[in-house]
Amino acid sequence: MSAGFEFVVVSNRLPVDQVVSESGGQSWARSPGGLVAALEPVMQEQDGAWVGWPGIAGTQLEPFDVDGMHLVPIPLSKSEVAEYYEGFSNDTLWPLYHDVIAAPSFHREWWETYRRVNHKFAEAVAEVASKTATVWVHDYQLQLVPKLLRDLRPDLTIGFFDHIPFPPYGLFSQLPWRVQIIEGLLGADVVGFQRDADSGNFAQAVRKLKGFPSKGGQIEVPIEDPNPGVRVFEPVRYLGQSRKVIARKFPISIDAGAYRELASRPDVQARARQIRGDLGNPKHIILGVDRLDYTKGIRHRLRAYGELLAEGKVDPEDTILVQVASPSRERVQSYVELRNEVELTVGRINGDYSAIGHQAISYHHHNYPREEMVALYLAADVLLVTALRDGMNLVAKEYVASRFDNDGVLVLSEFAGASDELKRALQVNPHDIDGLKQSILRALQMPRTERASRMRSMRRHVFENDVRRWSGDFIAELDQIRAERGNAIGD
Ligand code: G6P
Known about the structure:
Number of strands: 18
Bound molecules: 6-O-phosphono-alpha-D-glucopyranose
Strand content: 15-25%
Strand order of the largest sheet: 5-6-4-1-7-8-9-12-11-10
CATH architecture of the largest domain: 3-Layer(aba) Sandwich
CATH class of the largest domain: Alpha Beta
């Protein structure tokens, strides 16, 4: 073991993806998704290491520094990417944990690769973490790492944060490897979730599968006999001692101040005006911003919008829907199908309702830099978040943090974690297309005073509960456990 780092974050992806151009040149691009968006500011302020995959199969890279972060790349082969990342993580766990909106695939070979890759991550972390370091493991791709790491390095304090929903037992119990997943997670000292519903589902799975009760967000995990001798055919023996695991919610957030600062920059505001102008200065701009994922309810949103146009309740002469759909998991079949369906629907709606000079839907299958996103948030009168299931949805919080003018209306699905906090959004059930249509119309017609009062209260919440508070709360919980353990072992 080297001298190592006292604080180590581990997630499937590093915050930057390696990009190789056609001419063979190499560069780095910011990785997609809420996990990186939330952790990046935390790590820029911490003197720690971030262990993860650099986003391309088969690359071997030495550790390197980027934007004040020390990154330790884990190489994944083509078959590991296919079976661990595209397969088990994104075609088994992702759909299972998101209410089986798409059918999960169960393959034993994928599970074996998931196990093997989780080992690889745990071994790399064990190498870079200093004695009694704190390690923070992230998300569904790495649920076995806490236990593997505890076995390798019992001196570490280990946290795990689940960025996505934890499913109800009725769904979780379908997983053939459910016990191993629960045991993997219980290797952590603190297991964090987005919502009370998620930590409740986890506690129930622990009770049903392991028989360990929980009370007040605390689970007593009996310590196994590490040396069972010849008792191979007997049930696991416990030493009569136990370890406490904290399992509760820590709702994730954003760097709200960074969004406010960007939004108050004159060039970003000028860009927002230019966007409105380029769109033909419509009376209303409605915005959707999502990874192109079936959990985001993009089809439901398009259905509702298409019907409003067909019924003449929204006039394409003065209203436009701007949909940013960032490319995601493009080799997984359900994502290929979703893209085809969304783009067909957008094409149909535009064919029926656009005119030369203005479109009904302005659709963008791209990633944009943060400045451009903030300009779009400032330009948009309404942000539509219609997720069918979403751990949190940080886009909703980014919109709120950007609206320093206390304007704009957030339409927010009750199935996104953010709805527990942003109570003054117009909350919708995206499956209820009529209800969704009514909420869109209400958002378009909402008086300025009501918009301001709703936005002001949501802004207060987002600024009081920003990403520093989230990471601070989580790390404080880990520090407390570390201190208790230090006392217990007398160092
Ligand atoms: C969600 C997940 C993250 C993931 C991100 C992007 O936010 O919680 O773990 O990194 O989506 O997905 P990708 O598969 O591209 O990493």
